[in-house]
Amino acid sequence: MGMGGIFVLSILSILILGIIFIALIIAGIFLYFGCKLANIEDVSLGKAIVAVVGGGILSFIVSSIFSAVPVIGGILSFVFGILSYVWVIKVIFNTNWSKAFLAWLMAIVVEVVVMFIIAFIIAFIFGVGILSLMHL
């Protein structure tokens, strides 16, 4: 591989890391709002980002372990993956299980609402209406 290939790989690596960093900040913002809606005290964006990273890693590990269980592994990995993520929120924000679960759920709800708003804005900008989608 020549110098041009190494340069391109370096630029792509930097872009990918930048995208991951931006995605973590955005996910942290959603969790931040979820915590605020759940009335969790002492909430900060930094804690929310740490909870997103820690919750994501722990949830991945726990889900991977439980997915190996025959027959009911999918259900177990789903349930324990969520529980491990909520546990991380509970620990980082020093709150109880119900507020941590509510924060996790509100973060998802806020994220879905924002995605729909963005989708409608994009559809409006490009002139894609609901009726034209029905003819697909």
UniProtKB/TrEMBL annotation:
The keyword Transmembrane helix applies. It comes from the Archaea. This is Yip1 domain-containing protein. The chain crosses the membrane at residues 6-33, 45-65, 71-89, 101-134. Keywords: Membrane, Transmembrane, Transmembrane helix. The keyword Transmembrane helix applies.
